[in-house]
Amino acid sequence: MNTRYFLMLKMLFMRSPMKRADYMRKKGVFHSMGEKVMVTSRKIPLYSRLISIGNNVWMASGVSFITHDVCHFMLNGRKKWDEARFEEKIGCIEIGDNVFIGSDVLILYDVKVGNNVVIAAGSLVNRDVPDNSIVGGVPAKVIGNFEDFAEKRRQYHIQYPANNAKQFVSQECEDIMWELFHRERL
Fold first, then answer.
1. Which terms are listed as keywords in the entry (predicted)?
2. What is the pLDDT of residues 13-48, one digit of tens each?
């Protein structure tokens, strides 16, 4: 069995995204992987050794790293180009320290994500992301400053009951969150 698929099968049964990241680090799945990394995905990208992940990186569900394309197959299949042979395009991806990558983000090859970065959910990252920035959109563009975001989040305080259930909210917490949601829309 292909090692990549064996590793993904093993990760399928790991509930903790932190343990999953530790397992990937131990197995050398990526070129490098720092400490305090959370990987929710159980999918290992093709050419994963072309990906470097820094320290304190948190990846939500559905994050995809694309280290290659397969356009060469299409180009090589055209009659017009019978003599030409097109090669597969591959490239590296580097993720800096203190990075949050939102759900369903797609990061393409030849991209460096700087330090202290937040990438908004659903973004397509097709060019380098500067340090200390918030990016979002398709394609991703700078939409804010990391320090401003951190300060705004520091001031965010909602009093809701402790939520000890893993990956579920208590009924009491759920009721409070819906009440707040509707109150903000009056």
1. Repeat, Transferase
2. 556 667 788 878 888 888 999 999 988 776 777 888
**CA angle 143–145–150, rounded 5-degree value:** 120
What residue segments make up the domains of the chain, in order of their start? 3-145, 156-186
CA distance 22 to 94: 18
Strands 141-145 and 133-136, by their bridges, are: antiparallel
What does 8-64 look like in DSSP terms, one character per residue? HHHHHT---HHHHHHHHHHTT-SSEE-SSEEE---PPPTTGGGEEE-SSEEE-TT-E
Return the amino acid letter for 172: E
Residues with catalytic annotation?
A: 68
- Neighbour tally for 151: CB within 10 Å: 10
CATH label, 3-145, candidates 2.160.10.10, 3.30.300.30, 2.40.37.20, 3.30.70.360:
2.160.10.10
Strand bridging mode 106-108 / 124-125: parallel
